[in-house]
Write a structure and sequence with these properties.
Protein name (chain A): Glycerol-3-phosphate ABC transporter permease
Family (chain A): Belongs to the binding-protein-dependent transport system permease family.
Shape of chain A: flat
Number of helices of chain C: 20
Pfam family, one (chain A): BPD_transp_1
Distance between the termini of chain A: 45 Å
Strand content of chain C: 15-25%
Number of strands of chain A: 2
Strand order of the largest sheet of chain A: 1-2
Radius of gyration of chain C: 23 Å
Chains: A mainly alpha (307), B alpha+beta (374), C alpha/beta (442)
Helix content of chain A: over 70%
Structural class of chain C: alpha/beta
CATH topology of the largest domain in chain A: MetI-like fold
Order of helices and strands of chain A: HEEHHHHHHHHHHH
CATH architecture of the largest domain in chain C: 3-Layer(aba) Sandwich
Main location (chain A): membrane
Number of strands of chain C: 15
CATH architecture of the largest domain in chain A: Orthogonal Bundle
CATH superfamily of the largest domain in chain C: Periplasmic binding protein-like II
CATH superfamily of the largest domain in chain A: MetI-like
Mean pLDDT of chain A: 89
CATH topology of the largest domain in chain C: D-Maltodextrin-Binding Protein, domain 2
Helix content of chain C: 40-55%
Oligomer: heterotrimer
Low-confidence stretches of chain C: none
CATH class of the largest domain in chain A: Mainly Alpha
Largest interface: A-C, 29 and 35 residues
CATH class of the largest domain in chain C: Alpha Beta
Keywords (chain A): Cell membrane, Membrane, Transmembrane, Transmembrane helix, Transport
Mean pLDDT of chain C: 86
Distance between the termini of chain C: 59 Å
Number of domains of chain A: 2
Chain lengths: 307, 374, 442
Amino acid sequence: MNDARELLPVPSQESRPKRNLFAFLEGWLYLLPSIILFGVFVFYPMFRTIYLSFFLADQMGPFEFVGLENYQYIVSSDSFQSSVKATILFVLYTVPAGILLALFLALLTNEKIKGIGIFRTLFSSTMGMSVAASSVIWMFMYNPSIGVFSRIAEWLGFPAIQWLQNPDYALLAVSLSTVWMNAGFAYLIILGGLQNIDTHLYENAKVAGVSYLYQLRRITLPMLSPTLFFIVTVSFINAFQTFGQIDILTKGGPVESTNVIVYSIYKDAFINNDVGSASAQAVILFFCVLLLTALQFKLGERKVHYQ
Amino acid sequence: MTHVELAGLKKSYDGKKNVIEQVDLQLQQGEFFVLVGPSGCGKSTILRMIAGLEPITDGELFVNGKRMNDAPPNKRDLSMVFQNYALYPHLNVEQNITFGLHTKKISREEQKRRCLEAADMLGLAEYLKRKPRELSGGQRQRVALARAIVTQAPLCLMDEPLSNLDAKLRTRMRSEIRQIQRKLGITMIYVTHDQTEAMTMADRMMILHEGEAMQIGKPLDIYNQPANTFVASFIGSPAMNVMEADVSPSGIVLSPHCTLPNPMKGNVKAASKNVQIGIRPEHILFSAPEQADAVVEVVNTEVLGTETLITFILDNAKEQWIARWNGQWQFSVGDRIPIRFDLDAIHLFSKDNGRLLWAANDGQPNQTAKEVLR
Amino acid sequence: MKRLLAGLSVLFVLFLTACSSTDSASGTTEDGKTEIIFWHAMGGELEASVNEIVDEYNSSQDKYTVKPVYQGSYEESLTKLNTVAGTADAPAVTQIFEAGTKQMIDSGNIQPVQKFIDEENYDTSQWEENISSYYQVDGEQYSMPFNSSTPVLAYNKDAFKEAGLDPEQAPRTYSELKEAAEKLTIKEGDKTSQYGLSILNYGWFFEELLATQGGMFVDNENGREGGATKASFNDEKGQKVFELISGMYEEGTFYNSGQNWDDMRASFQTGTMAMMLDSSAGIKGLVDNADFEVGVAYLPHPDNVDPQGVIIGGASLWMAKDIEENQQQAAWDFMKYLSTAEVQAKWHVESGYFAINPAAYEEDIVKQEWEKYPQLKVTVDQLHDTVPSTATQGALISIFPEARQQIVTGMESLYQGEDPKAALDKAAAEVDTVLEKGSRSR
């Protein structure tokens, strides 16, 4: 049954390096499109921003080297400090609330009831709305004279609050609209995660007779933890980059209460023509988000139960 | 004492077509009962209805005499083992085993004690701190079993628990499960599609086909006196050989060259009717040429070491039958061999509905050694 | 099926590339005419007006073709210009708002129109001096004024009548203003259904209220004698403005209408406040859309102060430097056309902006319009009554956007109870820092 097979000829020494070189170049050829795109749209802007942060610069480029002066000015300025405060508050207002809302809605619509599809579509629909369109709608809702919220407040007997003009309320108002806008995406992700949980786990719990809350705590949340970790991380990163609704609703005001770092960067770069300062702020923001994400992975990932 | 009773159980999803049709059953305490049938016959559905995971459309379910149709699963005093084990990946073995025990108002110490007991019984004592993903398939299955045992529920439902294991492990687990069940005296309702498991494990079993109960009874009774052709061909491996034949008082005509003497002797109810004749492979015997009922042509042989399965044709090339002979027989394709049929083991089924008309065997297992080799 | 899909994708990509036209480069059209691009920030009805004027220009002669392109708001359009300025893709003519004047001068990318004025011996006296002087530095005319506006006090004449005030006598001094506002404020319990006055949180209004007192925004003659180095708006004149706002807000007669022009005008239309400051360019729209009679008056000034008038706002037209000679000629020709009396009359009547050529006011269509909208005449009168000085010429600084932002933040802090002097000083300190930074330009 086993015929003695002839040994295949061993390739000679000379042709092997050529083949290796060719394979190497071929590999790079496949990588090239990706490298070019990433290089042009991600790496180059990133390094250029870091470069510009050490200069005084305007729209046409840098013109005076100032070393760390931009950074020093930013770190000591009141304006930046209120930006940091606004950013942190904004992130704290929008991320937990948004995810809890999405989780709640996903749990509600996880059942296989007739017509549940309508609700699922409804809840995820905010994903399809553009930030600009949504912001304009919310702006009208917040209008102190004709907006829906003021009408309700009036009807309930409260004085009309100028939601977007009052520095105490402006950030909350913008946060609320942001939670609404981001809910769709988070909802979809979490719903997907829920649907992936083995139903037998719940059946076993039913047979054992544990309460609904117990099932939620001990089955749903642990099984959902990879999804939750993903959506929390992504939501944090997105929250730091929120721009559209602030530009349309409050333009960073009133009294800079909604002047999150990203918006401050935009104002400095495109309205005040101070590209150096904007670049420095961008670099600071980058490292903050990087640090936060690293922390999340280090501390949070331990709690995640991958399968 | 009747532990579980199903009376006229029906199930329908759309209100029009019944997927489970009229199941009646009474189980005694401590019985090992098997629901067996091909995929999609409804056996898991029945199990889930007993468990309370599926609503019962019609009929009644009684546990210990109490009507349980609307009771939630945890009030039915039962435990369940799932096909894919349903272990919680984020909990270790010990936590999996004791999952949900707190609802039965059992103290922590008692929970731990029961867990250790079950772990010992199933050989899991060293794995208690491991997570399910660090266990093999067989070990996971035992954890699921342990989880059912610690509840000390008198009724245990098992939904094809061995399907995901390899053949060797399956054989061993069959025996283990049976031993544990006997030792603890639990009533077990066991669902499987494997007729070997059913035959070897059941005290009694129910064959299901498309939602209808074909037959309920002890394994050997079913084996020897199958109620219809479906049961006859489902139980036993290789399946019973079934063929159309003509019966007259003179004999059973299998083929132009083969007529068997009518074994019914006095009973000629089936005279001249077109019937189906059934005979199991082990009842087709080697014969000396003079005593042969027929000479058949070999189309295939399978030598298993302990026995040989010979596929042959009588006259009609379309009908292939299998004979099972002990020992290692060497035949070539095309050989013509003389065979005879054990007339004490013939079954006659109706041609239209496959119902058993007559069986020579009275159902008792044959105590005397059969003639196998000449 | 796969082939069909591939073919469709190729077509789609081609379609996309065809759709994105480069509308920043000027060139020559097929029929030998020199084509130039004109970037502007006039949206809505104003854009329709601009397009009409450009069409009429194009058909009035056959040497040049102008292509108008709407580029968004003043800020957005300036941002876009910055990305192509100094290159061959720059538009020949761009409309830039008044606050961007110094930036444009400093950029070195523009061609002062003085060159063409000199070449042709163009008579610049036909222009309204108050307007053109804004865009002059050291006697050199940099840009061509196009659409100028001034701030006015707009008020609800019906509300005046109801409050027992003379609708034809608008308040002029701050005390008159406060009195009127008090009478106009209608309160029920702690809910106010009508406020007396509102001023948009916009830096320009502050500058105007300062200038009408003769106050300087920055030092060095408002930055017109050498570069500005310090803010000077936090003197007593500026303080009077902030004290007015703060005081009235505390009394509950002042309404905070935020930063958005549309919101403010909408609040005025719904009667949330009876008086407000608005640009003369918005008057026609107010009159048309209000269901009450709208009155227009001069900007108010503090008691015992001789009103100096107003700084012109709006925008002017700038010519790019690094373009072809024939394109520059085309741009100059277009600009000249725009400043003729007929075109200015049409523009004034349709937009409410001032005619830069006073002769336009003699045109019949203007006279007819003024009969229909006598409010428009008030705005012109206010401009003619302005006393020329470096105060009313307006500040010349490159960091106007940031400076205006600081004023806005200052105004907003007043509503939170900040002391007017402290708010103003804070804004001034910030502006000083920004001025210092801005002076280190290229």
